[in-house]
Amino acid sequence: MGGYPMDGRPGPMRSPVGSITSIISTNEPLGTDPEPSRKEHRQRAIEVRLRATSVHRRRRRNTSRRAGK
């Protein structure tokens, strides 16, 4: 499902994933996490969370403006 050296290689294909993986890898060394699959899941969850929050905030602002007017 995901070898350690292969995870960093497909960076250009999906840039956001690569950047986040590199940041997390610097903070937490690969040796600490025994299961790479769990790490991938965690990274995906963080990405989804960031995207969802940004979209949610935008929608909220738009709705509030419309309601005010």
Describe the model.
- The chain has 69 residues and is an all-alpha fold.
- It has one domain (7-68).
- The protein has three helices and no strands.
- The chain has helices at 4-8, 15-27, 36-68.
- α2 (15-27) crosses α3.
- It is rod-shaped, with a radius of gyration of 17 Å.
- The termini are far apart.
- The mean pLDDT is 58.
- Residues 35-50 have a biased composition (Basic and acidic residues).
- Residues 18-29 have a biased composition (Polar residues).
Concise synopsis of the structure shown:
The protein is mostly helical and 69 residues long. It has three helices and no strands.
Task: Considering the chains and any ligands shown, give keywords for the structure.
69 residues; mainly alpha
Structural class: mainly alpha
Mean pLDDT: 58
Gap between N and C termini, in Å?
51 Å
The total tally of domains equals: 1
How much helicity do the residues have?
A: over 70%
The portion of residues forming beta strands comes to under 5%
CA radius of gyration is: 17 Å
User: Please, how many helices?
Assistant: 3
> What form results from the Cα inertia axes?
rod-shaped
Low-confidence blocks of residues: none
Q: Can you write the helix and strand succession as a string?
A: HHH
Largest sheet: none
According to DSSP, the number of beta strands is: 0
Biased composition (Polar residues): 18-29
Biased composition (Basic residues): 54-69
Region (Disordered): 1-69
Biased composition (Basic and acidic residues): 35-50
